[in-house]
Amino acid sequence: MNFKDLILQGIPSNLPVKRDYDPSVNHAPRRKEILNAEEKILALRNALRYFEPKHHPTLIKEFKEELEIYGRIYMYRFKPTYDIYARPVEEYPGPCLQARAIMLMIQNNLDPKVAQHPEELITYGGNGAVFQNWAQYLLVMKYLAQMEDDQTLVIYSGHPMGLFPSNKNAPRVVVTNGMMTPNYSQPDHWEKFNALGVTQYGQMTAGSYMYIGPQGIVHGTTITVLNAGRKIAKNKEDLAGKLFITSGLGGMSGAQPKAGNIAGCITVCAEINPKAVTTRHSQGWVDEVCTDLNELTKRVSLAKKNKEVVSIAYQGNIVDVWEHFEKENLFVDLGSDQTSLHNPWAGGYYPVGMSLEESNNMMANDPEKFKIKVQESLCRQTTAINKHTQKGTYFFDYGNAFLLEASRAGANIYKNEDGAFVDSTAFKASDLESAAFAYPSYVQDIMGPMCFDYGFGPFRWVCASGLQEDLDKTDEIATGVLEKLKQEAPEEIQSQLSDNIKWIKNAKSNNLVVGSKARILYADAIGRTEIAQAFNNAIAENKIGTVILGRDHHDVSGTDSPFRETSNIYDGSRFTADMAIQNVIGDSFRGATWVSIHNGGGVGWGEVINGGFGMVLDGTKKAENRLKSMLFWDVNNGLARRSWARNKEAIFSIKRAMVQEPKLKITIPNLVDDALFSK
């Protein structure tokens, strides 16, 4: 059978040949054993319901083995034999263009060049899954190939519940991931219910089919590093010769060294997994690899002296780097961390003093001891960072739950009103969530007030043709739109537009594409709408092929995350999730091609609710109407909430939006004189 026939086949009626486990692939770590004997039987029943009873005697043995060895049932036998990557949209079967575009995006998320653990259907973050197993993948692709323009595919945590009659203006796919009732969102709940095969961790853009490789975070990371550099600059100097220390070279975190190069600094990024180091180095995302701390110190010292722009991967543990540089008195200008601390006990963070293999073995066979080792390591890392910051290092939490997990580990991560470190044992457990961390979230200091409150966030597009020439044309179109908007933009957003114009002009030369022909560009509602409109016009004129729009969930409106996206909300509402839910509902009836809502993306299970969308542009008037309606709402929903929280930049932005669109009527907060509270 050819590729299209295999897609239309779905789950084959005859069992495919059992596949051998490929040790050369970067596999997910073994999950800890959490099911009792009765629950293991339930997990097997749940897995076998995808298959005809005649196959159950063969598959039950196989699935039982997977559950025992890996802690999950992935159904490796059913992984397709064809190559998985983002093909041109015309190569997918089916009568519905929108459905074929979604198939393209799904395959991009599972492309071995893109995905962190492709055999386990995990795109990034250690546990950010597209599907729970290969049967779900096969069924979803078959349903999409059968879909017509008046049907909607409903997906519960990777499982396709089925195609339902709807209408042409409805989303073609609605995705939910990990949506638990509130009392069941602790980390072990994910372990248990995921092992049972009834829920999954969709991360942000993994389970919503909008991941575009490490490029997806490069722009935001570049903006963050540039503005962090501006915060520490004494005479408006740039980052030449300044050192940025961080960790993580896996999925999203792999963007850090590339962003450091674009920002113009020296970047040292530690990573314990040699496969991740090799991948990023071979892809050109990091310049050099070092395995010896003394050699690393010499190399960094030379780079500082010569003011080089260079990125170096240290294959080892980040704690050793912080401690060694402190011992050698090597000054660190900027510091952060982007290990997957939303998933600290199952491969997101590796403790110092243990090898990768030792850690993987302990997390599966002695999870309680492994948790202790992780927390001890976090305390050591925090102690070393504190020593550096006392010398002048600017450290920020990069939204990976580093500060949160360090606080839970008992690290000295709090400061009092005088700026002195306070032992976490001085706080009651109930006070920890609201206590003042010693270091800001990058959203609090940078992305929130400088970008999100002005409506700027990570807008994305994918050229469904797969042609480089189409991507080049979209870069040109977007540049032209931004340059025109900058001429009339108010002073408050001139710097944002200038940074974004510089970014898009240099995007091709920075070799950002891994997988689909995609681009990311921070833009506000006006910019997104104008760019999308220009794309749609170009499609209508046959200048480019179909374009798929989307964004990261890490955006103005899509995510309620009290320790990241909404950490600069100070009216007491940062722990609420109304914004994300309203966002996905509003996107659904305003024209999104598909929508998703997740529990847990970015900072951990139970810590965040986040949503996203995809929108297919085909050059029609209907597409134009959809993009104008949905993109305006998708941003201004968040600006309205941020404005109500009394964020002055957001108040400015939403007032400006009301001038541009008279039908927009937003409740503006009345500000209270602080002097009233001192009487």
UniProtKB/TrEMBL annotation:
<comment type="pathway">
    <text>Amino-acid degradation; L-histidine degradation into L-glutamate; N-formimidoyl-L-glutamate from L-histidine: step 2/3.</text>
</comment>
<dbReference type="Pfam" id="PF17392">
    <property type="entry name" value="Urocanase_C"/>
</dbReference>
<feature type="domain" description="Urocanase Rossmann-like">
    <location>
        <begin position="213"/>
        <end position="446"/>
    </location>
</feature>
<dbReference type="InterPro" id="IPR035085">
    <property type="entry name" value="Urocanase_Rossmann-like"/>
</dbReference>
<dbReference type="InterPro" id="IPR038364">
    <property type="entry name" value="Urocanase_central_sf"/>
</dbReference>
<feature type="binding site">
    <location>
        <begin position="125"/>
        <end position="126"/>
    </location>
    <ligand>
        <name>NAD(+)</name>
    </ligand>
</feature>
<dbReference type="Pfam" id="PF01175">
    <property type="entry name" value="Urocanase"/>
</dbReference>
<feature type="binding site">
    <location>
        <position position="398"/>
    </location>
    <ligand>
        <name>NAD(+)</name>
    </ligand>
</feature>
<keyword id="KW-0520">NAD</keyword>
<feature type="binding site">
    <location>
        <position position="271"/>
    </location>
    <ligand>
        <name>NAD(+)</name>
    </ligand>
</feature>
<protein>
    <recommendedName>
        <fullName>Urocanate hydratase</fullName>
        <ecNumber>4.2.1.49</ecNumber>
    </recommendedName>
</protein>
<dbReference type="GO" id="GO:0019556">
    <property type="term" value="P:L-histidine catabolic process to glutamate and formamide"/>
</dbReference>
<comment type="similarity">
    <text>Belongs to the urocanase family.</text>
</comment>
<dbReference type="InterPro" id="IPR055351">
    <property type="entry name" value="Urocanase"/>
</dbReference>
<feature type="domain" description="Urocanase C-terminal">
    <location>
        <begin position="452"/>
        <end position="655"/>
    </location>
</feature>
<dbReference type="GO" id="GO:0019557">
    <property type="term" value="P:L-histidine catabolic process to glutamate and formate"/>
</dbReference>
<keyword id="KW-0963">Cytoplasm</keyword>
<dbReference type="InterPro" id="IPR036190">
    <property type="entry name" value="Urocanase_sf"/>
</dbReference>
<dbReference type="InterPro" id="IPR023637">
    <property type="entry name" value="Urocanase-like"/>
</dbReference>
<keyword id="KW-0369">Histidine metabolism</keyword>
<comment type="function">
    <text>Catalyzes the conversion of urocanate to 4-imidazolone-5-propionate.</text>
</comment>
<dbReference type="GO" id="GO:0016153">
    <property type="term" value="F:urocanate hydratase activity"/>
</dbReference>
<dbReference type="Pfam" id="PF17391">
    <property type="entry name" value="Urocanase_N"/>
</dbReference>
<dbReference type="InterPro" id="IPR035400">
    <property type="entry name" value="Urocanase_N"/>
</dbReference>
<dbReference type="InterPro" id="IPR035401">
    <property type="entry name" value="Urocanase_C"/>
</dbReference>
<feature type="binding site">
    <location>
        <position position="602"/>
    </location>
    <ligand>
        <name>NAD(+)</name>
    </ligand>
</feature>
<feature type="domain" description="Urocanase N-terminal">
    <location>
        <begin position="84"/>
        <end position="210"/>
    </location>
</feature>
<dbReference type="GO" id="GO:0005737">
    <property type="term" value="C:cytoplasm"/>
</dbReference>
<keyword id="KW-0456">Lyase</keyword>
<dbReference type="InterPro" id="IPR023636">
    <property type="entry name" value="Urocanase_CS"/>
</dbReference>
<feature type="binding site">
    <location>
        <position position="203"/>
    </location>
    <ligand>
        <name>NAD(+)</name>
    </ligand>
</feature>
